[in-house]
Amino acid sequence: MKTIRVKIVIGIILCSLLTALIVGILSIRTTMKISEADSTQSMINQSDAVSNELDSTILRVEQSVNILPRYGQFLC
For the chain, what is the mean pLDDT? Predict the structure, then answer.
């Protein structure tokens, strides 16, 4: 009688461990996919911000360079 009870308990424990393992693996895979997508979006946003800042700097330098000939006319 004890052997049947032990076999049932071992079967239940094995099924529980297998279920926990499957759920854990699926959770890790899902988390990795979400994390990768979030990281990609974050890098895109950062590169856009740096690009906009660089464009702004280049525009200010260009405007400064375009003003120089006007000042040169007043000096000559």
Answer: 91
